[in-house]
Amino acid sequence: MASDGVMLFFLWLALKIFYLCLSRTSLTILSMFLKTKAIILHCLKYSDKATIVHLISEERGRLSCILYGASRKKSGSKMAFLQPLSLVDLEIEMVPDRELHQIKEARPSQIVSSIQMNPVKNALALFLAEFLYRTLREMQTDKQLFRFLQQSVLVLERSEQGIANFHLVMMLHLTRFLGFFPNTETAGRRFYFDMENGIFTSACPLHKHFLRPTESAVLYQLMRINYENMHLFRFSRAERVDILEYVLAYYRIHLVEIGELKSLAVLTELFD
Fold first, then answer.
1. Which pTM does this prediction carry?
2. How far, in Å, CA of 218 to CA of 212, rounded?
3. Contact indicator for 63, 101 with CB cutoff of 8 Å
4. Number of structural domains found in the chain
5. Which domain covers residue 104, as residue numbers?
6. 53 and 162 both lie in a single domain
């Protein structure tokens, strides 16, 4: 009887070891390693050894990842290229049904030292990273959109003038990818801008979400702005703050989950 018990024990032990090995093998088979370019949106210290990184990847769209080791004192160089709007090359272990994927390797794909060192560019980067974090929550793979965002970061990095309007250009042109770029075909003098339908109209809309003709004229003027000519558009700080509020109100109608932006207060104090 004792020998039978011993045999049963060893049989149970062998089955348990086999099950554990099978589980690990299955996990390895299910997981895959993804190499992708990415734009950093937000980093949050999770523990002394781990950081949660929210990013937009070229290959998989919006991702939330965990990076081990970046929170340590000796990892300052690694955190330097995980700042908002940093452009990076990543290798990520992707496991199905996990909310957080593990970053295995991270390195800068483009150096954006001017954005990090220039206080005005840095304030713009903080605001736009938070804005993108809120607006692109459910972003799927969209390589055209990724390239637009990537090129926009490089424009900010390299620009020497006109950056006071940079965020307005980026926010307006982003609406093309999100499906609610304003239709200017019906625009005219003394027209209202219907924010719900994204059109200019001669009649005052029956709902409350519209811009009056003087405000609509400024928005219509901005439809011609781009990264090449943004330095030619002159606005006072008060005018630029008003324009930003119009644009944010327009976004909130079409993407109600944006909410309040913490970095907005800092941005509105710039560009006197």
1. 0.83
2. 10
3. yes
4. 3
5. 32-111
6. no
**Whole-angstrom Cα distance, residue 260 to residue 123?**
17
Neighbouring residues of 183: CB distance < 8 A, sequence distance ≥ 6: 198, 199, 200
Q: Residue 260 — left, alpha, or beta (φ > 0 → left; ψ -120 to 50 → alpha)?
A: beta
In a domain, 50, yes or no: yes
Q: Each residue of 89-126: pLDDT tens digit?
A: 999 998 887 788 999 999 999 989 999 999 999 999 99
Considering the domain architecture, whether residues 258 and 147 belong to the same structural domain is answered as: yes
Report the alpha-carbon distance of residue 77 to residue 70 in Å, rounded.
Answer: 9
CA distance 112 to 152: 12
Per-residue model confidence as pLDDT tens digits over 164-223: 999 999 999 999 999 999 988 877 777 999 999 999 999 999 999 999 999 998 888 888
Strand order in the sheet with 210-211: 199-201, 192-194, 210-211
Distance from C-alpha of 217 to C-alpha of 70, rounded to nearest angstrom: 48
